[in-house]
Specification:
Length: about 400
């Protein structure tokens, strides 16, 4: 398959050294992208270059290495601003990932601005990272957590959300794309309806970032969190976007170096945004390398990403749905390139191990969405999640392997 720029999937795959190996004597087929995507050579090179040439602490040094490291670090902040179309670069806060971004908002915004009797709304398909921080906040403040139900096909209904909205709703935090089901939620409508009652909104974009263009000004969300390792970048780095006026109203999440302006034993004056939320020495090297991941995604373009991943999704449906005992979990009309499933009479862990023996990496378990699994009355699923470097041929091999495994189990 060719793209408008002349790049082919085969050429894209050449940029990922990890893909060119055997696992258990078989060519690696990596279908665990919703957990962590692989990194292209450009990201690896950027990481190595930093440690070989620029390694120094940032913002506080005047020597050459410190200035180079600071420039590279802030260049990534500028790239992230453009990637999600934030109005100002100061609205970009670096975190270690989506989980930390959500926790930051829950504590720095929630503990100051949410009170007893206030209401927080999430969906029934949230990752634990978008459940537990709000439960903790409710325990701390006396606020109430409310949950939008999930239909049997893995969708939420706007009328169910509207029924939960009241004059007490202060915050809404929803996943853009479900990591377990691939469901794409109607976040623009959710944001608009939440704002109509005066609530602030956070969007968990961990799964959306590698699949779907993000425009925080168009969305008009108050916060958005994403992780680098979901979108071909390093682990341990993420972005929290917040509108300037909201970030400025919040107290710091942690204390330490960088987040201060002046310190005395009588009191402390905090730094400006975004630095007041970036206490201590950050994960400089991985932030610097994250810029290369942003450039990789932008260089391919979301048009091709979406087209190719939908081709993989449709091929997966075509090849997998007819396998004896195959049960898809999550059949939303609008979904990303994720297929979660069970096979009658076969435990997901067994399937995962047998597939691994054939060099095929899938995720098994509850995918950090135990309440969602409870909703479907299951312990977990097998999840195959596809990325831009996966191929139709890999889907076919996967389907053949699964068919063979099921036949052997049926004997």
């Amino acid at each position: 398959m060719q793209v408008a720029t002349g790049i082919s999937v085969a050429e894209i795959r050449k940029q990922f050294p990890i893909l060119h190996q055997e696992v258990n004597g078989k060519p690696l087929i990596y279908f665990d992208n919703a957990a962590t995507s692989q990194t292209p050579q450009s990201v690896i090179d950027a990481l190595v270059h930093y440690y070989q040439r620029d390694n120094a602490n940032i913002h506080r040094g005047i020597h050459t290495l410190a200035e180079r490291a600071t420039t590279a670090f802030e260049a990534t902040r500028k790239a992230a601003q453009g990637f999600i179309n934030a109005r100002e670069v100061e609205e970009i806060v670096f975190t270690k990932g989506t989980s930390e971004g959500i926790n930051l908002v829950a504590q720095a915004y929630g503990r100051k601005l949410i009170s007893e009797g206030d209401e927080i709304i999430i969906t029934g398909m949230e990752h634990h990272s978008n459940i537990v921080p709000w439960q903790m906040l409710c325990q701390q403040t006396g606020a109430k957590l409310k949950v939008i139900p999930v239909a049997e096909n893995g969708e939420i209904k706007l009328e169910d959300f509207e029924a939960l909205l009241t004059e007490k709703t202060r915050f809404v935090s929803v996943v853009y794309i479900s990591n377990s089901l691939g469901t794409v939620n109607p976040v623009e409508e959710i944001i608009s309806k939440a704002h109509a009652v005066g609530a602030k909104v956070l969007i968990d974009a961990a799964q959306a970032a590698p699949h779907h263009p993000l425009d925080v000004q168009k969305l008009d969300c108050d916060f958005l969190a994403l992780s680098g390792h979901k979108m071909y970048g390093p682990t341990g780095v993420g972005v929290l976007y917040g509108k300037r006026e909201v970030l400025e109203a919040m107290d710091p999440y942690q204390g330490g170096g960088e987040m201060i302006r002046d310190v005395s034993f009588d009191g402390t004056t905090y730094n400006d945004i975004p630095y007041k939320f970036e206490a201590g020495t950050p994960n400089i090297a991985d932030v610097v390398a994250f810029k290369a991941a942003i450039e990789f995604v932008e260089g391919i373009g979301y048009d091709f990403l979406h087209q190719h991943e939908m081709t993989l999704l449709e091929r997966g449906k075509e090849k997998l749905y007819g396998i004896d005992g195959f049960q898809p979990i999550g059949t939303a009309e609008n979904k990303a390139s994720v297929i979660s499933f069970l096979v009658d009479g076969v435990h997901p862990f067994d399937l995962g191990m047998w597939l691994d023996a054939k060099g095929i990496a899938v995720r098994t378990g509850h995918h950090c969405t135990q309440p969602l699994m409870d909703h479907f009355n299951i312990d977990g699923t097998v999840r195959a999640s596809f990325a831009v470097y996966n191929t139709v041929e890999e889907i076919d091999t996967f389907a053949e392997a699964l068919t063979e495994i099921v036949k052997k189990f049926r004997k």
